[in-house]
Amino acid sequence: MKALFFNDFGDASVLQYGEVAVYGVASTPAKAELAYQAGATTVFMRHDPWDTTHHNFFDTVFDGVGKTLPVSLATTKHRGRVIFYGMAAGNPPVIDPVKLMSESKSLMTGDLWDYLDSAVARQCRANQLFDDVLTHRVTIRPATVYSLAEGAVAHRALETGQVAGKILLRP
Predict the structure, then answer these.
(1) CA distance linking residue 26 with residue 158, whole number of Å
(2) pLDDT given for residue 128 in this prediction
(3) Distance CA 26, CA 38 (A)
(4) CA dist 35 to 21, 45, 124, Å?
(5) d(CA 43, CA 25)
(6) Is 158 or 75 the better-scoring residue by pLDDT?
(7) Which of 75, 83, 99, 151 has its CA 20 to 30 A from that of 121?
């Protein structure tokens, strides 16, 4: 099975599981290295034309970017799945469900707050996450911290892909 992650791998590691070959897409060589460290077997640079050589290639694509949804669908095999879980770069374009049906592709979505709809559900998920962090099944990258006075610098760093993961502004 081949899975593609549209994510810049800044916040946490990719969990390798079984016989899944994990591919990634990154915006910079430094972020590509983070993807390799997280377990990716192959990483494509976002601005390279990798999608033209990997049409109908992946069994499953995880897309947290949003505007890349057409590429995610084009690179997914017939009868494959796209899991759309975020809009880091903005809203995706409208998708034609008839085209999906003609290729037997599934587009799956979900809102976190629909799943974590009670205090009990949130606590259960938090306990699981903290256990995964404490046992090193998930590795969290430290945030990049700027002073509030450096807000414009932080914004430029985020826009240009110079940072991976979260940015915090300190008062």
Answers:
(1) 14
(2) 93
(3) 13
(4) 13, 11, 28
(5) 5
(6) 75
(7) 83
